[in-house]
Write a structure and sequence with these properties.
The protein has about 100 residues and is of the alpha+beta class. Helix content is about 35%, strand content about 15%. It has four helices and four strands, in the order ααββαββα. The chain starts with 6 loop residues before the first helix and ends with a helix.
């Protein structure tokens, strides 16, 4: 199984770590994920680590059950039905920004 990096993932990684991003897109991505220690394995079977999936996969729920942030705000009353709930999904750093 080979990792297929979306152009969106590549752009966000390149923006964050542009000092170690190289010109060749596929080789650069493989080198980058190895330097960041978010993927491992031989070149023909480079697989993401859990941290790589949590931070750079927009659908991490496919790998980790309940990997989202849920915030519940209760009113000042004692009414249990009176609350506001927000659920943040997606890559972990995006969830933190939104929350």
């Amino acid at each position: 199984m080979r990792i297929v990096w979306s152009s969106k993932s590549m752009e966000s990684l390149a923006k964050i770590y542009d000092d170690i991003f190289i010109d060749s897109p596929q080789n650069a991505m493989e080198e980058l994920v190895r330097k960041l220690n978010i993927a491992s394995g031989p070149d023909e079977s480079l697989l993401p680590k859990n941290i790589g999936l949590l931070f750079f996969n927009p659908n991490q729920e496919n790998f980790f059950y309940k990997s989202n942030i849920e915030i519940v705000r209760f009113s000042d009353n004692d009414g249990a039905d009176d609350f506001i709930e927000k659920v943040f999904t997606g890559a972990l750093h995006k969830q933190i920004e939104k929350a």
